[in-house]
């Protein structure tokens, strides 16, 4: 990287960047130690599945690191070509398996866009609620897991305890804890069950308590701060070149959230909420932004629950869905970042080609850049703070 | 609700996207072969193969499209295996093999396309370029957008497209001795080849019974 533009980079980002460059220089000149290759994974708690990181070390510092993907490549882009449109949601459920419902939404929106169909308002609101619930379920596990990876055991128990409430809600509305497969072209499979709204409000209160608990337990912890502050700084310019999205991008100071900044037939713009950003771009910033977003998501759900419009949850669509010829791109702000589908249709019952743009693939592609010059324990911090789901990398 | 009919009273115009495409055309000049704006939806341009790298360079440095969304490829040839529902014991049926390009046209079987976003104005554009059938090579943009590195590696193993100037085109997912390029349309989906597909049996009845059957 040569572009150290004062206008683009904040002071702290620039200083950290210079520090890492200096570390690189030290490596090459001072430490004439024999290099060693460290293999992390494929099975390692920090890899959320089976990601393998090969790191070449010089003493305690990483000279070169490269993730090795493909242990979970399932070929969804190929499989969509032999599926009908309604069948594709079953596949895409399994991309980011902690926030499955959120994976279905952009695909369904892309198909609806090509068909010129819009879901009824009630379906749009329920979609948005379930979308945010999957964000809460997804990111709350991140917040717990983060502790484990940095040596704190307690947060993960809290996370698993409280995430269960959210999964129960998703299950009672959709029938599936992890893979709802609930979104349909033109609306939703079903309406909400009786009593669900009151129960959800209670759970959202619990989740806000959980966020407070984590904030004081983890983010206020001195060890946690010294493990994360200034570690793995990603300047704004680099983050955008690599296509980082979601909390990773906002933690580098980019005020951009697809929920707010693009028109989509969803209900986010019907309620008031805040996009959180952080200027530092380090691991702490990424974790902090996620924590704030989880709390914000519970507030979005609360507001949406108060105003769900009445009416049907399904528009009139043909029984056998044929999508007219055309190309469409729809992306949404998923728990992990920008997730989008580029759908090419040939007027058939199934797509001609689907390009799945998953957030983790871009988020993890920065790892070779971000790990250069860091110390070995910081590898885990940086991987944890970038937050990826293996299925979301490999697809 | 239901099907949204476009009213004839208001001809759809998207001033912001039209202006953006005009600006892109002004910067890139003759490199832009075709462009398309779907009002309220999205914008596409197609550039000549030789201008692919220069286009993304200009989009990033001159026009402010700093955010790299994705890069991939499309094989426009219809699949010789259809939807993989043929009975393997019967001779394969005749299929239309005409290559029809998508939005903004195209002259080759393969196309690369990338999407970049301006994070300030939130304008976004999808750029396409033909991949010559004989060389199967386009210029790498991994030095323009560093994030394109992995996307090009993926397109290389899945479509067999070479990216000239790419630092390291190793396979990402497949074993290094894997033969063929799985996302090409003429690469069979083997699971569907070895066992007859039972056919579409799971058309789900929609809420509201038989209404809405417009096909």
Helix amount of chain A: 40-55%
Give the uncertain stretches of chain B in residue-range form: 1-8, 211-215
Write down how many β-strands of chain B occur, each being a DSSP E stretch of 2 or more residues: 8
The CATH topology of chain A is given as Cytochrome-c3 Hydrogenase, chain B
The run of helices and strands of chain A is HEEEHHHEHHEEHHHHHHEEEHHHH
Total domain count of chain A: 1
Q: Stretches of chain A where pLDDT falls below 50 for ≥5 residues?
A: none
CATH-scheme architecture of chain A: Orthogonal Bundle
Order of helices and strands of chain B: EHEEHEEEEHEH
User: What is the radius of gyration of chain A computed over CA atoms, rounded to a whole number of angstroms?
Assistant: 21 Å
Oligomer state of the chains in this structure: heterodimer
Q: Tally the helices of chain A: what do you get?
A: 16
* Largest sheet, strands/sense/barrel of chain A: 3 strands, antiparallel
Tally of alpha and pi helices of chain B: 4
CATH C-level class of chain B is: Alpha Beta
Model description:
- The complex is a heterodimer of chains A (395) and B (215).
- Chain A is α+β, with helices and mostly antiparallel strands and 395 residues long.
- In chain A, 49% of the residues lie in helices and 12% in strands.
- Chain A has helices at 11-29, 76-80, 85-92, 100-115, 121-149, 154-174, 196-219, 222-228, 236-241, 247-250, 258-261, 283-306, 359-365, 367-370, 376-386, 390-394; strands at 36-40, 52-58, 61-68, 117-118, 183-184, 187-188, 326-334, 337-345, 353-357.
- The model of chain A has no long low-confidence stretch (mean pLDDT 85).
- Chain B starts with a strand and ends in a 21-residue tail after the last helix.
- The chains are: A alpha+beta (395), B alpha/beta (215).
């Amino acid at each position: 990287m040569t572009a150290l533009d004062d206008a683009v980079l904040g002071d702290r980002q620039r200083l950290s960047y210079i520090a890492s460059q200096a570390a690189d220089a030290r490596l090459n000149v001072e430490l004439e130690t024999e290099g060693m290759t460290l293999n992390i994974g494929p099975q390692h708690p920090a890899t959320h599945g089976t990601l393998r990181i090969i790191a070449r070390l010089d003493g305690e510092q990483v000279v070169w690191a490269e993730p090795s993907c493909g242990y979970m490549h399932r070929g969804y882009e190929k499989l969509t070509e032999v599926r009908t449109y309604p069948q594709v949601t079953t596949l895409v459920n399994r991309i980011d398996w902690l926030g499955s419902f959120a994976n279905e939404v952009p695909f369904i929106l892309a198909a609806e866009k090509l068909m010129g169909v819009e879901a009824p308002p009630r379906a749009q609101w329920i979609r948005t609620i379930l979308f945010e619930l999957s964000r809460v379920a997804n990111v709350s596990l991140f917040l717990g897991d983060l502790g484990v990876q940095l040596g704190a055991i307690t947060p993960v128990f809290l996370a698993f305890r409280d995430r269960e409430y959210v999964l129960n809600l998703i299950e009672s509305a959709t029938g599936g804890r992890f893979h709802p497969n609930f979104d349909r072209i033109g609306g939703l499979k079903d309406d909400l069950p009786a009593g669900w709204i009151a129960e959800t409000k209670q759970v959202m209160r619990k989740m806000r308590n959980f966020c407070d608990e984590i904030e004081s337990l983890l983010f206020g912890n001195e060890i946690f701060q010294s493990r994360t502050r200034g570690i793995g700084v990603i300047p704004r310019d680099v983050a955008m070149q690599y296509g980082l999205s979601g909390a990773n991008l906002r933690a580098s100071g980019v005020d951009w959230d697809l929920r707010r900044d693009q028109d989509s037939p969803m209900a986010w713009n019907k309620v008031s909420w805040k996009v959180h950003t952080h200027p530092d771009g380090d691991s702490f910033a990424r974790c902090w932004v996620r924590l704030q977003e989880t709390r914000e998501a519970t507030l979005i759900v609360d507001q949406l629950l108060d105003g769900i419009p009445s009416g049907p949850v399904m528009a009139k669509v043909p029984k056998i869905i044929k999508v007219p010829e055309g190309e469409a791109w729809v992306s949404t702000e998923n728990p992990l970042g920008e997730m989008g589908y580029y759908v090419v249709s040939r007027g058939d019952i199934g797509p001609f080609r689907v390009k799945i743009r998953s957030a983790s693939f871009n988020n993890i592609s920065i790892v070779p850049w971000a790990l250069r010059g860091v110390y070995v324990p910081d590898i885990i911090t940086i991987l944890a703070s970038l937050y990826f789901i293996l299925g979301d990398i490999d697809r | 609700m239901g099907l949204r009919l476009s009213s004839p009273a208001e001809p759809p115009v998207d001033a912001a996207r039209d202006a953006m495409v005009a600006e892109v055309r002004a910067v890139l000049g003759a490199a832009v072969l075709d462009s398309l704006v779907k009002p309220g939806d999205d914008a596409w341009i197609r550039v000549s193969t030789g201008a692919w790298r220069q286009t993304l360079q200009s989009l990033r440095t001159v026009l402010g499209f700093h955010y790299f969304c994705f890069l991939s490829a499309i094989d426009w040839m219809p699949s010789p295996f259809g939807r993989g529902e043929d009975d393997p014991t019967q001779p394969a049926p005749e299929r239309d093999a005409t290559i029809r390009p998508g939005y903004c046209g195209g002259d080759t079987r393969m196309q690369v396309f990338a999407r970049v976003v301006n994070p300030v104005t939130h304008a976004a554009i999808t750029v396409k370029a033909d991949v010559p059938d004989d060389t199967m090579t386009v210029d790498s943009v991994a030095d323009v957008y560093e994030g394109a590195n992995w996307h090009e590696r993926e397109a290389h193993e899945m479509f067999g497209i070479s990216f000239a100037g790419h630092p390291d085109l190793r396979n990402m997912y497949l074993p290094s001795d894997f033969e063929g390029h799985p996302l090409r349309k003429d690469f069979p989906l083997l699971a569907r080849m070895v066992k007859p597909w039972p056919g579409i049996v799971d058309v789900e009845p929609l809420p509201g019974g038989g209404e809405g059957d417009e096909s």
